[in-house]
C-alpha cells in the first residue's frame, strides 16, 4: 500500500510543472478575451479620429453630390466607422427639389474636421413621419448655433423640424427629423471631411 501511495504522489508532482507551464502559455496572449465568433471582447476596437487640417497648400473643399445617396428606404440603416471622442461641428440642411438633405458635420475633440467616415444609425418611425439618426462617438458639441440648438424649426413643406432627443448613451447624440407626411430616407457617411448625410425623398 505504501508503494502505491508513493507512485501516486510522484505522478502528481510530475503534473504540477505541466499545469504551471500551460497556465503561463495561456497568459501570453495578453488581456484580450475571445468569444466563439473569434472577436476580441476584452479590448475595444474604437479608433481615434484623424484631423483634417485646412492649409493654404491643401485647402479643404466639401463636395456633396446633388442627387440622393442611394434609394430611399423605410428600413433601419447603418453607415460609417466607429470612433470615440468626436465633436458635433454643425447641422446643415437644404431643399434639393426632389429630396431634402440634412447634414451633420463631425470632427475631432479639438474642433477640427476629421478625415474618416463617422458612424451613424438611422430608423424611420412606424407612421413614416419621423427619421431618427443616432450619431456615434460624439462627446462634445461646438459653439455653432445650429449644433447647440435642441430644436431647429425648418421652413419646408416636408421637413418640419430637427430636434436633439435625450439619449441613454453618453457617447452618442440622437436626432429626430420630423416630417409633415410619410417619406423614405437614405443614410450615408462621408469622409474628408467626416459628415453624416440624410436624404429624405419627397416622392
Give the structure's gist in a few sentences.
This protein is mainly beta. 14% of the residues lie in helices and 36% in strands.
Word description of this protein:
The chain is mainly beta. The chain folds into two domains: 1-43, no CATH class; 51-201, Immunoglobulin-like. It is 14% helix and 36% strand. It has two helices and 13 strands; from the N terminus they run αββββββββαβββββ. The protein has helices spanning 2-26, 145-148, and strands at residues 51-52, 77-79, 86-95, 99-107, 113-114, 120-124, 130-136, 138-141, 151-153, 159-165, 172-179, 185-190, 195-201. The strands form three sheets. Strands 2-6-7-11-10-9 form a six-stranded antiparallel β-sheet, with no helix packed on it. Strands 8-3-4-13-12 form a five-stranded mixed β-sheet. A hairpin with a 4-residue loop joins β12 (185-190) and β13. The chain is globular.
Give the secondary structure arrangement, pairings included.
Blueprint: H1 2-26, E1 51-52, E2 77-79, E3 86-95, E4 99-107, E5 113-114, E6 120-124, E7 130-136, E8 138-141, H2 145-148, E9 151-153, E10 159-165, E11 172-179, E12 185-190, E13 195-201
Parallel strand pairs: 3-8
Antiparallel strand pairs: 1-5, 2-6, 3-4, 4-13, 6-7, 7-11, 9-10, 10-11, 12-13
Tally of domains: 2
* Structure annotation, total helices: 2
Q: Which structural category do the helix and sheet elements fall into?
A: mainly beta
Radius of gyration: 26 Å
Order of helices and strands: HEEEEEEEEHEEEEE
How many strands, which pairing sense, and closed or not: the largest β-sheet?
A: 6 strands, antiparallel
Low confidence ranges? 1-43
Shape: globular
| CATH class label of the largest domain | Mainly Beta
Amino acid at each position: 500500500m505504501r508503494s502505491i501511495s508513493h507512485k501516486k504522489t510522484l505522478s502528481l508532482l510530475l503534473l504540477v510543472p505541466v499545469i504551471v507551464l500551460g497556465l503561463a502559455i495561456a497568459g501570453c496572449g495578453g488581456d484580450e478575451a475571445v468569444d466563439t465568433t473569434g472577436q476580441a471582447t476584452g479590448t475595444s476596437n474604437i479608433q481615434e479620429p484623424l484631423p483634417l487640417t485646412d492649409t493654404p497648400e491643401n485647402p479643404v473643399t466639401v463636395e456633396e453630390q446633388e442627387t440622393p445617396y442611394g434609394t430611399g428606404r423605410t428600413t433601419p440603416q447603418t453607415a460609417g466607422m466607429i470612433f470615440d471622442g468626436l465633436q458635433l461641428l454643425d447641422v446643415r440642411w437644404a431643399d434639393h427639389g426632389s429630396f431634402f438633405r440634412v447634414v451633420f458635420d463631425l470632427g475631432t475633440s479639438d474642433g477640427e474636421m476629421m478625415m474618416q467616415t463617422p458612424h451613424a444609425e438611422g430608423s424611420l418611425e412606424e407612421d413614416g413621419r419621423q427619421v431618427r439618426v443616432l450619431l456615434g462617438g460624439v462627446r462634445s458639441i461646438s459653439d455653432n448655433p445650429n449644433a447647440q440648438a435642441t430644436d431647429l424649426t425648418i421652413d419646408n413643406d416636408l421637413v418640419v423640424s430637427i430636434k436633439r432627443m435625450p439619449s441613454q448613451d453618453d457617447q452618442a447624440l440622437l436626432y429626430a427629423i420630423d416630417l409633415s407626411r410619410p417619406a423614405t430616407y437614405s443614410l450615408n457617411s462621408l469622409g474628408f471631411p467626416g459628415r453624416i448625410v440624410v436624404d429624405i425623398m419627397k416622392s
